[in-house]
Amino acid sequence: MSLPVIDMRCRPAFLHNFFGATPGSPEHDTARWLNRRVGTRGSDKHFEESLTQEGFLKAVRDAGLSQAVVVGRHTPSQHLPNDTIHQIVQGHSELLGIAGVDPVLQGEQAALDEIERAIKVLGLRGIDLEPGFGDPARHPDDPVYWPVYERARELGVPVFLMSGPTTPDPSFNDPARLAKVAQAFPDLPLVVYHGYWPRVQEAIGLAFRYANVYLVPDMYVFQPGHQAYVQAANQFLGDQLLFGSSYPFRPIGQSIEDFLALGFDEAVLPRLLHGNAARILGL
């Protein structure tokens, strides 16, 4: 089966030490470990191809992606500046960028100004928030984030949120705390990276109730409990589930192959791999 694919979470190794930018470093070893942990077959050094911009573009093209989404991040522990994301994606039609902001670290007005600049000047396609990685950790319904949701709605761009088991305090990986936001901003796409795994059933229940909640389980769709994502996508969740490889923590091509083998109905696969992302990103 040959289908166009948008990879909603795909970053080059050179972007940060966290992604293995420095061979021989503890972070590089951790990137290799995580690749093995989430099911990489073959060499766990595959991601070293993306230690350069040219290598990253080759990895994207070799995998046959239509587009790859490179995500910015702004947390106390990791800052991937929006200008850096812009530099990576500019001039390459197969690359799209998401801007990271943190109204706690930046201050509300500075964060709102940065959103305007990222979308209108840098041409990035959405906003990334990581409440559970804050200091202190917060939930997405914390009042500090509401101006960000409002500005994203005004600009017509989606908001991406981090979730999952790497949240420093697992109690902040809580799907229920997105409900108020989804209800207050029904026309704002809320796209959840890592799909709140391992709280899969609760995440699916949230998406069942709110059609503006989208799940990107990325590398966790290959972990125990993934069958619930597949079953839901074959029923009501077909317009709300999206593909992501989580590269460089998993090979892009292998992730596409493995995704196709999970048991999704053929009729729903075009939406999961391309259509839903294209709609949310305004492609």
Automatic annotation (TrEMBL):
Native source species: Comamonas squillarum
Domain (Amidohydrolase-related): residue spans on this chain: 98-283
Keyword Lyase: yes
Pfam families: Amidohydro_2 (PF04909)
InterPro entries: ACMSD, Amidohydro-rel, Metal_Hydrolase
Record's keyword terms, sorted: Lyase
Protein name: Amidohydrolase family protein
